[in-house]
Amino acid sequence: MTITDFTQVPLGTILPFVFNDSLIPDGWLKCDGREIPVKYKTLRELLNGYTPNFAGRTLIGAGEANNNSQSDGTYPNFDNKTSWPLGQTGGEYKHRLTVGEIPSHNHTINNGDFGLHRRSFDGNSDSDLPYKTKLEPAKGDRILSGTDRTGGDGFHNTMQPYYVINYIIYAGSE
Fold it and tell me: According to the model, what pLDDT value does residue 170 have?
């Protein structure tokens, strides 16, 4: 299919495009951060001379949001933002968790039979064993311990599952 009339397409319309660069129609530009040709004066002025660069990025709708659950049960405002201005960028390619992002938890140490301890001693005995053990009440014994440090203190990927495509923007007719 060939589209020959883009008169009804608003300037700046962005579309997903699954084909390579050689098949981008006339009047459309790839959204890869390149300089907009001077022949597309209006779009060039509106976007400060460059197409948006969507390489490695996902799109988020501009506008106001709140902390109320959406009809699908999601919460769009996870970081207490109240608006997403048109053209704003954000996010990060990798992330290192902070203590505040780790779920509340504790590490326990199992002391087995708390209050009792086993001790061994040498002695004269009728037994074949070189020593005997005796279980007796603990006398103020305490375990002073912690857990070993763990983790690599590295970054982790936060990318959702994806399928790579191009985005194109309508620049207008020459």
Answer: 96
